[in-house]
Prior knowledge:
Shape: flat
Number of domains: 1
Structural class: mainly alpha
Number of helices: 3
Protein name: YbdD/YjiX family protein
InterPro entries: Sel_put
Order of helices and strands: HHH
Amino acid sequence: MTALRKVVWYFDSILGGQDYRRYVDHLARNHPGCEVPTEREYWRTRHADADNNPTNRCC
């Protein structure tokens, strides 16, 4: 893996770029009959939940 790819992967991980894929994998493993939301729906719900239930976070 080149240095640039490592840097891109690192920032993608920090910013949550792989969260949706992990969530879809989780649904497939643990809730096979559950409807999978679109990526847009996933992020909309996630941000709404974060706004409604604030916790200690940097931003």
